[in-house]
Amino acid sequence: LAKTTQPISMDSYEGQEVNITCSHNNIATNDYITWYQQFPSQGPRFIIQGYKTKVTNEVASLFIPADRKSSTLSLPRVSLSDTAVYYCLVVNDYKLSFGAGTTVTVRA
Amino acid sequence: GAGVSQSPSNKVTEKGKDVELRCDPISGHTALYWYRQSLGQGLEFLIYFQGNSAPDKSGLPSDRFSAERTGGSVSTLTIQRTQQEDSAVYLCASSLGVPAGGGSIQYFGAGTRLSVL
Predict the structure, then answer these.
(1) Are strands A84-91 and A102-107 parallel, antiparallel or unpaired?
(2) Distances in whole angstroms, Cα of residue A67 to Cα of each of A20, A63, B31, B113
(3) d(Cα A31, Cα A44) in Å, to the nearest integer?
(4) A32-68 as b/e: b if 16+ CB within 10 A
(5) pLDDT band at A41 (very low <50, low <70, confident <90, very high)
(6) Within an 8 Å CB–CB cutoff, is residue B103 touching chain A?
(7) Sign of the Cα pseudo-torsion (A76, A82, A88, A91, in order)
(8) B93 CA to chain A: closest CA distance, Å?
(9) Mind telling me how many Å the CA of A5 is from chain B's nearest CA?
(10) What distances in angstroms separate CA B107 from CA A12, A45, B5, B115, one per listed residue?
(11) What b/e sequence results for A80-104 when a residue is b if at least 16 CB atoms lie within 10 Å of its CB, and e otherwise?
């Protein structure tokens, strides 16, 4: 699995946009970029997945440049309930592997 | 059911005892996965089921670990002669159909927190 690098932590305030950038320099042609969210004492929850350009759903947007060596997860107008760990993965099969993730803390 | 259900949510056992962890996947999901999540270790793949078959058991850490799935639905992960290093959160996930092409979107349960004393 391609390794990813993302910030260990980020702080934000309610109503702000949070952007988390993930580096995946050795991403392979068949790899998809996938983000999961995890709250304490819960299992990871799928947020968004993309291959190239931009993907948007009701929760977040994912921006992927042409070289696909990085990606940015954008969470619009965060609330306190968005405080969680966010994991960036590059996957081309079923063996998901999470690193330490980015702990996002949203303050009032 | 509405989501992946795991039981028990917490299990405390003594070293050397056997434990069984249960996973009830989302109805209609043919693929089922077990993972282990330890502090500082991230998420570790254990085993993958497609229907009742386990084409990939490569992540099982030792022969003390086994898993089965019956009726294409419920799965049980069994750990025999538990050791303290088995303490972790055991997560189950399921997905619709066979992972193909890009990455599969997996839906996780809340996990079973296993503590081996």
Answers:
(1) antiparallel
(2) 18, 12, 32, 40
(3) 20
(4) bbbbbbbeeeebbebbbbbbeeebeeeebbbbbeeeb
(5) confident
(6) yes
(7) negative
(8) 9
(9) 14
(10) 27, 7, 10, 24
(11) eebbbbbbbbbbbbbbbbbeebbeb
CB of A7 within 8 A of CB of A99? no
Q: Which of B71, B88, B82, B93 is nearest to A91 (CA)?
A: B93
Tens digits of per-residue pLDDT, B26-58?
A: 998 989 999 999 876 678 889 999 888 888 888
pLDDT of res. B40: 64
Q: What angle do CA B4, A54, A19 make, to 5 degrees?
A: 75
**Dist CA B28 CA B97 (whole Å):** 9
Two structure tokens written together for A53: 């350009």
Q: How far apart are CA B26 and CA B5, in angstroms?
A: 8
Query: DSSP code of B74?
Result: -
Residue B73: the pLDDT is: 92
Which pair of structure tokens corresponds to residue B15? 């070293």
Residues of A in contact with B111 (CB under 8 A): 41-43
Reduce the DSSP state of residue B2 to 3 states and report it: coil
